[in-house]
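Q: Sequence in, structure out?
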Amino acid sequence: LWHDRPRDALGVPQFSDAEVAALLAAHAPALEVETRLDADRFGALAWNGGAVPAVDRAAPPQAYQRIAFTRYGDQVLVQLVYSFWFPERPPLGRVDLLAGALDAVVLRVTLAPDDGRPLLVDTIHGCGCYHLFIPTAEVALRTPAPTDVEWAFTPTTLPALSPGQRIVVRLASATHYVVGVDRDGGAPGTPYVLSEEQMLRALPTSAGAS
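A: Exactly. Output:
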């Protein structure tokens, strides 16, 4: 799969639809959510008559996936992106400027160019906040870090994964903060369905339209 891939004019490796689906399925993370509230139950988005989309609580848990690419030096690396949408971020007090309808956590897995093993995982919330980088031992931060820019925050290192072993990501209740990233130890996590992120361009309504 990784050797002698055809590339387009920009050097981006080309995969068939079946190969993309296989990559996304193989690296889909195990998600362990501290579930204390209804707001901790992620799922599919739909129009339910409100001003903004809402999580369909009657549908099974769902994540949205897509393939992406990044250029590093003279190489183009494959990235696999998974988005998990929650009904809300509930207020934690009388005044909570971070609370509101809908919350999302986006996970991105960057793969090595030679054999497709995970090199780096980074996560961010749908608001664009709390960007974390979890590298493997093969990735090192450049030093010294600049003092005039926000630098990459790396709270931990991802252990090496065995072939077929998944990444497990742990989320806190209510805030949905990422509180842990590790290799899968056998716990099943929350089962979910994978859907194409393109589906978000035309969401169904309660009447069945889109």
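The mean pLDDT is 89.
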